[in-house]
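HUMAN: Please help interpret these tokens:
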Amino acid sequence: MDTNRDVAAAAARAEIDTSVLQQIGDTPLLALRRSVPPGCARILVKIESVNPTGSMKDRMALAMIDAAERDGRLRPGQRVVEYTGGSTGVSLALVCAARGYPLSIVTSDAFSAEKRRHMAALGAELTIVPSAGGGMDAALTRAMIAAASDIAARTGAFWTDQLNNADQLAAYHAMADEIWRQSGGRIDAFVQSTGTAASVRGVAEGLRRRNPGIRIVAVEPRESAVLSGGSSGVHRIEGVGAGFVVPLWQPSIADEIATVSTEEAMAMARQLARAEALFAGTSTGANLVATIALGRRLGPDATVVTVMCDSGLKYVSTPLYDGSPA
């Protein structure tokens, strides 16, 4: 018997994952170098693009499916349905393919072709709801919700219902734990764009359990600044700004709400790619606009954490990167 060979084989087996889902989470925290202006706080970015589908939504999709499996709402082989701007749909398609669930996704032409093709490649059946000129607004969100509700009623599918599903908060509590550990607890503020509000709320809850004084800034599109008390409107920051106050939002979550225009968000995402070699989407650009503004106010002794929500590979056919006007 070769004891050394047996030990080596056992060690190798310990390094082999049995599912792609084991690669979700535990993402890097990166300090920006060339994008931070003089006198600004240290800015750290959680690089969620390294998740399997290139998005932080892998975390919440797995959390929603895990919870539904545990309590029996989702049975083996049952269909799953969701409405989505794309990233959640891609993440659900990944989880459902890995777990063996058929998936129906309601989405729109307002969102990138890359996301729709990625969902279809992973086996999702797509229902496309037309948008008004390619923009996101409250009417589109509500039309997608209605279509998903109809599919659930007609097929008996389990509807993950992301705008109302608090199961996803656990995924972002875990993200908060990662941020705390990776930063050594040195964090003065956290900034995050708001779609379902689960990520900003979950991370805020997790961080404030450690330090109640951490400042939380929620980000929303300036064209549809409903959380700030403004009017609902059309914008092109994919995955955020539903156009109405979403059910998981709580006013106590944020110390302040920052508004960022689509144009500002796109310009910052492009700058991030050139200056930091971080290829991200529009919501990440919005995060960085708000984060740098806050960092200027807090000064160089502070540390602000934000999120690279997803990969720019999801947006190469959109005005963000195709060279056309926003």
